[in-house]
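Example record used in the benchmark description.
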Amino acid sequence: MNGIKIMEDFLQSTRAIDLTLTLEEGMPKWPTQPPFSAVTYEALEWGFDSYHRGISMCEHTGTHIDAACHFVAGTDSIEKLPLTQIMGRGVKIDAVGTGPRASLGLDKVLEFEKQYGEIKEGDIVFFHFGWDYKYALKPDGQEFLKDWPGIAPEVGEYLRGKKVKAVGCDALALDADGTDFQNHVILLGNKINIIENVANLSKLPPFFSCVGLPLKVKNGSGAPLRLVAFVDKK
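Model output (structure tokens):
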């Protein structure tokens, strides 16, 4: 079938949902990382021919993807990521109710599979903790920056065995409270990328189509990611 026709039919039959946080000043950030900032260099109201700004941010600002080299020495940086790495079937596991600093256990993942169907090789798996409800700009974003939940290492190992392409969440990090990074090592060390600070997961069904394209940053430990879900219009 003609590729253009396939794309036209796909776009007509689906609805796009943006899973990406807006990059803006005052957004929450990891404590040791620089904030997002924007400086206007020319503006129409200043008499210039155009409006443009210079921006500064960490590679892990907002909705972003971790490259393997973020935690595992000698592995690939973000510009080497296959173009289709974050393209495929998305899986949303409802983890709302996981307590602060708690780690979701494997039993919850198995319950999901029993109810909805098996997680498959190549899937892009997201955990919705409901932490996105705490997201806010300064000075109101402090609750988002502490005590977030995550997944247990046994879940990371299970998904590694499933050969998924990526694992994401709506919190600041996939590992609870950022005090231990076992899942980062387990997943990134096996070419399974991590996606964090995902928006609008509450709007998704258990399975959907997913497309994400990171900035192509030379030697990048990660990059901001424009992440989009497509769900059936029905």
